[in-house]
Amino acid sequence: MSSLPSEKFIAPESLPFLRERQLELAHNIAGNVRQRYELQLLRKDGITVNVRISTVPFYDDHKKPAGTLAMITDITELKRQIEAKEFLSKATEILSSSLDYTTTLAAVAKLAVPRIADWCGIDIIDEKGSLNRLALEHVDPTKIELAYEFQRTYPPDPKARQGAFEVVRSGKSEILPVLTDEMIELGVVDERQKEMIYALGFKSYMIVPLKARGKTMGVITFVTGVESGVFYDERDLVVAEELAHYAALAIDNSLLHTQAQNELRERVSTEEKIRHQALHDSLTNLPNRIFLQEQLTQACRKAMREKKRCGILFLDLDRFKLVNDSLGHHAGDELLKIVAERLLESIGPSDTVARFGGDEFVIITNNASTDEDLVVLAKKIFKALEVPVYIYDQDVYVNTSIGIAIYPTDSKNIQTLIKHADSALYCAKDEGRSTFCFHSSQGGKDASKRLSLESDLRLALKNTQFELHYQPVYSIVQERIISAEALIRWNHPSQGLLSPASFLSYAEDTGIIHRLGRWIMQDACRQLVEWSKTELKDIAVAVNISPLQFFRPDFVSQFKEIIEVTGADPHKITLEITENVAMQHIDTVIIRLNELKALGFKIAIDDFGVGHSSLGYLKMLPIDTLKIDKSFVQSALHSIADDAIVTAVSTLARTLDLNVIAEGVEGEEHVRHLCSNGSCDQIQGYAVSKPLSSKDFHSFVIRGAPLLGTLA
Q1: How confident is the model over 600-653, as pLDDT tens digits?
Q2: Would strands 174-177 and 131-138 be described as parallel, antiparallel, or unpaired?
């Protein structure tokens, strides 16, 4: 049996195992077998080593096995290098396959434990320069929470000359003891810190910087525990730094990947926002005209596939410009947003509402099996809009007119459908607004007529084709003509004399009303000055004011200028506004009326009785006259209720010291009735006279009105 001189340096604890290997060697001598073994033994100095034992048989002169030669080689460092290489190779493979930032950090910590550490923590520098623990791994999972508590209780000191922040500053790794007798004696650690270190089993640790692209992004802390009995040395640091190098590359790659993903998401989000902005109205967030084309195309294709109908409702807010002119564009914008919300609440889940432009909206609905379905939707819209909108401390009443066209009945072409719906919208306006109309072939002709009419209106202003006619107002008490209402007429070159009913609404829709209203006031003042030099010097004139005119910011200054230029007496001029205008923006109206009164103008409320006024508001208005609407006057003979209304209004007016004019007095019986009950001071209508040219009016007044005097 061969013997090995190993007892000189092998610790007694490892000798039994070594002798067992010797017996095995002796047994194999007969087999003439070369032997090689790798063992882990404990040296007498307490260090565990890896050794390789190589044996070769030798022979006597008769070529028979005589024994073995054994050589023991310390391969601890070699084995350590091989294991480190394999470990780092595996680490590279794992880290290179990870792109997620959090996953990468966790993988690094898991790789370190238990191969080169009993505990591993990764700290990343944030934007403020602080170190944040983003990953932690412990050989004993039950101690992870305790490790986090230790980190929170005793975070790295930014001012310390050693430790994590020093590694960040210097970019150089450190190997440090966790706890020494000297540290305890000097009181560097408190009792709680010492207890936690003992509980965690910390012995020594390495702090290695994480570097990528020349920048330190954080540190990895490797801690060896009491149970392993190992103190870190420079050889461990080499492996740790290699792992940190690969980890830093992986983390940096992960960050770049995350950054690329974020940039991609941001780019996609930006593109979506740009597309949304391109296809939606910025004020109401409804689809705009461009998106409407897409939606309408899809809706019509769906209707075609399913052999159904598709309805288009074209809406326009009635007198929206009045809100802009009186309360400002901000108020107009608020109104549009509220209208958009109400329209959205009115439509079905598969319907679309879009803002076509300005105060125009379009609704697309596939629920159009019958015309009645579209009528129901239109009425639902009217119902939604009838509730006043509270803007800038006052109620604003908003109405709409609706034009309806149907696919494929009216057209299969998208643009033509919209045109037909728009044409039907104007038909609704012509019928008195706040109503709806379906498209008809006549509607297209009317649209062309409207376009031609707008052009003719502008030409008429340029060529002075307008003239004023004057309808006399008769005083029952004085039994004479005391004033006249100026009414515009259009002396059209091919259609003859046109009443305002045929063109005034178009003038308002196109904005021509501002120039036209100014011309009316100028001509009425000119005529008043001319009459003041004749027998008609006591005659007063009433001028109707358009709502768009009245709420224009420079309205008062315009009329002041006209008075100054023409020399007309404002005390002989009554400005008439409708009851609805007076009540719509009461605060603004009161201010404006007071400004006009200060200039000397008189104020009359026209068409009284058909609007939204209340007695409380009426007494606040600085007015002089109430003109009772002709609908009450004309039915007073046959309706007890309407006769009572006329009488009540007259009584109210006298209480408020106001004049009362009955409009629409058409026949002798009306005159007798009004004269007999004494309900009105003055009357106006065909029973007195139709509107007359200025020349005929002059003759009419000079001639007098004997018939009315007889009747009275």
Answers
A1: 999 999 888 765 555 666 778 899 998 888 888 877 777 787 788 788 888 888
A2: unpaired
Residue with tokens 């908003």: 398
CA distances in angstroms from 575 to 442, 477, 567, 607, 655, listed in the order given = 38, 23, 17, 13, 22
Tokens 């792109």: give the residue: 99
How confident is the prediction for the chain on average, in pLDDT? Answer: 81
Q: What is the pLDDT of residues 60-115, one digit of tens each?
A: 777 776 766 767 777 776 766 666 666 667 766 666 665 567 777 788 788 778 77
Give DSSP secondary structure letters for 149-198.
HHHHHSPPPTT-SSSHHHHHHH---EEEES--HHHHHHTSS-HHHHHHHH
Tokens of 284: 């109401």
Angle at which helices 513-531 and 694-703 pack, to 10 degrees? 40
Backbone φ and ψ of 375, nearest 5°: -65, -45
Rounded mean pLDDT of 314-319? 89
56 pairs with which residues across the strands?
Answer: 69
Paired tokens of 670: 């009306």
DSSP code for 388 = P
Which stretch of DSSP H or E encloses residue 38?
strand 35-42
Structure tokens at 560: 């002041």
What are the phi and psi torsion angles at 657 (to 5°)? 60, 45
Q: Is 360 exposed, middle or buried (0-12, 13-18, 19+ CB in 10 A)?
A: middle
Torsion angles phi and psi, residue 601, rounded to 5: -70, 150
Which pair of tokens denotes residue 137?
Answer: 């791994």
At 4 the three-state DSSP class reads coil
* Inter-residue contact 606 to 627 (CB < 8 Å): yes
Burial of 65 from C-beta contacts in 10 A (0-12 / 13-18 / 19+): middle
Helices (H), 306-440: 320-327, 329-346, 371-385, 414-430
* Greatest distance between any 2 Cα atoms in the chain: 174
H or E segment at 544?
A: strand 540-544
Helix %, strand %, coil % of the chain (to 5): 50, 25, 25
Rounded to whole angstroms, the Cα distance separating 21 from 39 reads 10
Beta bridge partners of 674: none
